[in-house]
From TrEMBL:
It comes from Zeaxanthinibacter enoshimensis. Keywords: Hydrolase. This is Acyl-CoA thioester hydrolase. Gene3D superfamilies: Hotdog Thioesterase (3.10.129.10). The keyword NAD does not apply. The keyword Hydrolase applies.
Length: 134
């Protein structure tokens, strides 16, 4: 399963006084990567929620290698670790425009029924799209 890549420029508001990206912003970057990964399969968080499914993060691991700074053009690469079941797991790499590795990460999310607040299996329509590769 290949990485899906998105790129964007670091905004001033995302940095501290030294111009370095505040570490608390990285989970948002990972979410941006996941949202776009899903979109490549024609699925959105919004459509899943409209169908009564939510995807809360249940595990987040971040490893910082080098600082991202104001005005850097960074890329977030998102990769599905394995076929989802009740959980869906992603690995990430964040690089700057010079190709330097800034961070690696892993998240695990759970498919949840919005009404019952109970875990459920990955929806068949998403499994089918993943297995087809789009």
């Amino acid at each position: 399963m290949d990485f899906n890549k998105i790129s964007f420029r670091i905004r001033y508001a995302e940095t501290d006084q030294m111009g370095v990206v505040y570490h608390g912003n990285y989970p948002q970057y990972l979410e941006m990567g996941r949202v776009e990964w899903l979109r490549t399969f024609g699925v959105s968080y919004k459509s899943m929620e409209e169908n009564g499914i939510m995807l809360p993060v249940i595990s987040l691991q971040l490893n910082f290698k080098k600082s991202a700074v104001y005005d850097d053009l960074i890329s977030v690469s998102t990769k599905l670790v394995k076929t989802p079941s009740v959980r869906i797991e992603f690995d990430y790499e964040i690089h700057n425009e010079e190709g330097e590795l800034l961070a690696t990460a892993n998240t695990v999310l759970a498919f949840m029924d919005m009404k019952s607040k109970r875990p459920i299996k990955c929806p068949d329509y998403l499994l089918e799209k993943i297995e087809k590769g789009n």
